């Protein structure tokens, strides 16, 4: 799928003012172009890393691992419009970006992880080290249905597509019509970027993290150039049992700055979609992605 095809695919949400195209990539209408331009031109110091991925692929699993590796988050620093929230990086207010960059430059001895991002590769700092995570689109669809279905701001999309069930939402995601665009295109572009710059972009999958956590932690540690890491301790602290224990305190995985929104806690299962999607949805998946079966 190219930019023109994607724009046509998302025509309804664009007409409703819920989405827009920027440089040929779909973004939420609430994302300010000047924020994207600032991110593109930003030069990050070596003590920072960004976690990127399509929504519901497991960004917060990586954030949990980075937390165990003593990377500090930037939530709740600054004041007013310059305050960094738990929103994805591209959803921050423009002044908050300056708060972030000043914070990491002021403390070069500390490692920081910028807020997770759902942006495309070309919309993020060109020198940033990035951990990119992908996941089975069926799991993404089921998790996204529960997560976004609870939020007032996503009612526009749910009403537009008349989404009433996980199957309804999955059909939209499979066809690349959700509010974050075509996941297949998004993943392809990130993997192409990682292939060109493996020293700057490291890719993982949610499923492999769950099954081979220690190996993945070792690879992440090597990618980040960390030394003297207690790998078993990091692995133990990154398990979902640990994640759950500190979920409300540390994870802050809501896609909103509003305290009125419901925080949806998922179990992080690899194949929960098998219980929630019907044969019709799985048949559509098989038709659209025959190479994955």
Automatic annotation (TrEMBL):
Domain Sulfotransferase per the UniProt entry, residue ranges: 48-282
Pfam families (alphabetical): Sulfotransfer_1 (PF00685)
Top-level EC class: transferase
Domain of life: Eukaryota
Keyword Transferase included in the entry's annotation: yes
EC number: 2.8.2.-
Keyword list, A-Z: Transferase
Database matches in PANTHER family: SULFOTRANSFERASE SULT (PTHR11783)
Family per similarity comment: Belongs to the sulfotransferase 1 family.
Protein name per Swiss-Prot or TrEMBL: Sulfotransferase
Species this protein is from: Oikopleura dioica (Tunicate)
